Amino acid sequence: MELKKVAQLARLYLSEQEMEEFQKQMKSIFQYFEEIKDIDTKGIKPLVTPTPMEAFFREDEVIQTLSVEEVLQNAPEKSGHLFKVPPVV
Amino acid sequence: MDFTSKEAHEIKDLLVKGEVSSQEVIQFFLQRIEDKDPKINAFITVNKEGALKRAQKLDQLKEKKGKLFGIPIAIKDMLCTKGLRTTAGSKILENFIPPYTATVVKRLEEEGAIVIGKANQDEFAMGSSNETSYFGPSKNPWNFEYVPGGSSGGSAAAVSARMAPLSIGTDTGGSIRQPAHFCGVVGVKPTYGRVSRYGVIAFASSLDQVGPFSLSVKDSALVLEVICGWDANDSTTAKAPVSEWSQNLSADLKGLKVGLPKEYFTEALSEDVRQTLDRAIEAVKQAGAHVEEVSLPLTRYAVPIYYIIATSEASSNLARYDGVRFGFRADFSREPARDLVDFYSRTRGEGFGTEVKRRIILGTHALSSGYYDAYYKKACQVRFLLREDFSKAFEKCDVLMSPVATTSAFKLGERIHDPLTMYTNDIYTTSSNLAGLPSMSVPVELNSEGLPVGVQISASHFEEQKMLNVAFSLEKAFNFKAKRPKDV
Amino acid sequence: MSKYGDWEPVIGLEIHAQLLTKSKMFSSDSTSFGGGDNENVSPVTLGLPGALPVVNKKAVELSVKVGLALNCKIRHFSVFARKNYFYPDLPKGYQISQYDEPLAEEGFVEIYVDGQIKKIGITRAHMEEDAGKSTHHGDFTLINLNRAGVPLLEIVSEPDIASPAEAAEYARTIRRILRYLEVCDGNLEEGSMRCDCNVSVRKKGTQQFGTKVELKNLNSFRFVEKALEYEIERQIMVIESGEKVIQETRLYDSAKNRTHSMRSKEEAHDYRYFPDPDLLPVQISENWIQEIKSSLPELPIYRARRFQEEFKIPEYDAFVLTQEKDIADYFEEVAEQSGNPKAASNWVMVELLREIKESKKEISNVKIQPKQLAQLIKMIDSKQISGKIAKTVFAEMWERGQDPQFIVKEKGLVQISDPSSIEKMVEEVLSSSPQQVKQYREGKKKVFGYFVGQVMKATKGQANPELVNKILKEKLGD
């Protein structure tokens, strides 16, 4: 595993100490994970939601839940009623 | 009046009868927090003003009703509370004020409960000792040198130290049951799909479930009645009927079959935990239960598949903490972001703690191209087989009894530097989350060091009553709730 | 197709259609864009901690409609998956989409090119949510999330398309179908329908595909065609100059009529798709599918064919009349009620569509009801009014929306078909024009038109022209 590449994919800077520490740990953790490869899972459907339950839909109705002030109340930076971020192009 | 020796439903009865006022109760517990919490650190935020105001309002009501009328309750800081800071134990949400309230908190409040504060926890519920909290670890009320467990350590400690008669936690791989076991309180993780996750900060969506902590089984059953049930805002809630579990408790276990998973009884189990479990088995036999051994052959794989699934889901769930719409953003005033990658990486790199980063890295890798089939997909397939194992076991028995963890509470700092050992300690609890089963921890006795030891009881999907009855029976037999930490 | 020498293009389209729902794909905030910035934003849209998606039933229903209209297989259980990537207008850090178990797949659509019907394969159609909107201002970017979470259906074609013109026609056909089904308004300029093209070139006769390039920013059918034209030429030039086509996304610049590479500073995408654990598989019962199927309208290409056969109208007319469902509905009613489909086709295609175009009206706002137009045609056919008068009546009907009988009566426009009164009129005209009668009798037959004109003028155009002709000829002794 290329730690740097994965960290970039996850948009996460790691400190030097974390880099060193993770580098060592990842190998043994993934080795541990790989124990499952011996189990025969041919034709088994992956399970996501563990409890059997009925799916439901929402009716197409408009309900306003937040005011625009509430939408923006936690914004680190804003301009008018818009969120503001550094240039992205 | 001293409310520390009273159970929540007893306090509620006093309130409804008008023998005490809500303000009296809330002031009593706020005072407890002020006295005791500096040493325990069970709370990240105390809702002093809000709680007092609400108590005042409740006192003015002509009709005093509600299953939890006037009962102070500590809420794990994973649940959003409108207008009240919600941090998930993380720097990245240090100043986050939610504009909405979690369904669970709404339901509690509709039955009259008062949110007394937001409980400490491991950062984003990632940890088993409360030591990953950005706000410092919570301590075990039975011995401050020990951890309260995690991730819902603050919620467990708050009840154990009688700073609140009830609290709410979340359980993704044992985060309610293990701290309940460490702190000597009752802690329940209901069937996956019983309780709405709307407004509950996600760690791993297919595993997370909210549940109560209390001193007594009856109180936990009562909270379950309030918080369980279908929610139009959570697509993964079930329409299964909610019964009056607290009214239907029975300590008589005649005819009940209790299974002991043989794979759980290994050398890893410490002596105190094994002895307590043996005595608990004896007690349920005395209460009329039939005890037999069952097999869960895939047990040894539960922890690896749990960590693959939990970290994968978490890596995606935590992508929203990006410094754009809410939460922490790195300071770019001196050194502007070079590009978007830099903007995100610095914000997230500074905002998240080491354990959270470690798990995001694990999960990102497990989902990435070329590894998905071997890790995430394979883990989900094994998850299916593991659930099958449980289904087979439940053909033979009604409930399973097992240890909660290999040991009782450990010392602060003892394990934090060895993540793999920390992970493997979740061996007895993660299976219930993977299979979606209701599972709880009930305190039984103190070990020779004076630390609590509990046992775990699990049942088939939606069979909470059977599980609660066994716990109720053990509570009758051992009366652990009469014990309390001496320093508090 | 010798246009590209011994090269041939291979084209596939990805069309994103915004579904016409009132609320968003996974939350109850409004999809309307009239409001102010960030006003249609719920905790779900904002990606707040703890917010959870719940599927909009209508969005599923509309998607199934499209899937059926495109002859796709509909999955009884389809799965929402998370597509993970970071972008400021993507609130959760992932887009909820469908990946390996989409709602609909393996369909086809028939398009009409060069007078022939051609089948284009549909790989899949899947549901997803839209992102928000970023506006760039030099040293900062602003984010509006009103659009975030709006339901989209992505329709992916097979690489069956052989030319830019065919690609544009395919896109037009899809748009027509979407509008027929009333699932999307198909507005390319406003972005409620977006076309991305995948295009590669290969030597004729080879089976292997060349390296494909994705074209974006094509907000009209004309641009689809022009961008593809440009890009195909570019790729051929690149290969012929000994270089390689790079797999990339290119944007079309309509002002310069060229495509340019989107600068990509980031690493190759790794979207880490996995089933969204917040949502159960979308369950669609066979009953529901059948119910939706029975509600499907007749699709344009089939309707055109039926019009041709049933009403004996030309292929081109049938094609024009079936472009929009409400126009086709209008025409069909006029044709049936009037009993004269040919006249109905002429009146709708020429008069009605011209007025609609000039007034920029929607047909739903037109005052003339189909049955009124049918009455007008009947009045011509029964010779109550002439075709010329009918045009005047039509203009009145367009303005006021009244029945033609009423207008004809009110204005006294009923055709004069009584031979004796016409005879009297003819005699008057002839006796007052001795000069012209003389000319006519001397063989200057062109003057006949003058007599007709005079009679019509005297009757304010109401005389039955056939009778006028007949009587004139009798009187002039032909």
Brief description of this entry?
Chain A has 89 residues and is mainly alpha-helical.
Task: Please identify the oligomeric state.
Answer: heterotrimer
Classify the secondary structure makeup of chain B into a structural class: alpha/beta
* Largest sheet report of chain A: 2 strands, antiparallel
The helix-and-strand class of chain A reads mainly alpha
Order of helices and strands of chain B: HHEHEHEHEHEEHEHEHHHHEHHEEH
Spatial order of the strands in the main sheet of chain A? Answer: 1-2
CATH topology type of the domain at 1-39 in chain A = Histone, subunit A
* Shape-level CATH architecture of the domain at 1-39 in chain A: Orthogonal Bundle
Biggest sheet descriptor of chain B: 11 strands, mixed
Number of helices of chain A: 3
Radius of gyration of chain B: 21 Å
**Helix and strand succession of chain A?**
HHHEE
> What is the CATH domain class of the domain at 1-39 in chain A?
Mainly Alpha
| Model regions low in confidence, pLDDT < 50 over at least 5 residues of chain B | none
Shape of chain B: globular
Mean pLDDT of chain B: 97
Protein architecture, described:
The complex is a heterotrimer of chains A (about 90), B (about 500) and C (about 475). Chain A has helices spanning about 5-10, 15-35, 70; strands spanning about 80, 80-85. By secondary structure, chain A is mainly alpha-helical. Chain A has a domain at about 1-40: Histone, subunit A (Orthogonal Bundle). The longest helix of chain A has 18 residues, at about 15-35. Chain B has about 500 residues and is α/β, with parallel strands linked by helices. Chain B has a domain at about 10-255 and about 460-480: Amidase signature (AS) enzymes. Chain B has 15 helices and eleven strands. Chain B has an eleven-stranded mixed beta sheet, sandwiched between helices. In chain B, helix 5 (about 155-160) runs parallel beside helix 6, helix 9 (about 300-315) packs across helix 11 and helix 9 packs across helix 12. In chain C, helix 3 (about 165-180) runs antiparallel to helix 4, helix 6 packs parallel to helix 8 (about 325-340) and helix 8 runs antiparallel to helix 9 (about 340-360). Chain C is elongated and about 95 Å long. The chains are: A mainly alpha (about 90), B alpha/beta (about 500), C alpha+beta (about 475). At the A-B interface, helix 1 and helix 2 of A face helix 9, helix 10, helix 11, helix 12 and helix 13 of B. Strand 2 (about 80-85) of chain A pairs antiparallel with strand 9 (about 140-145) of chain C.
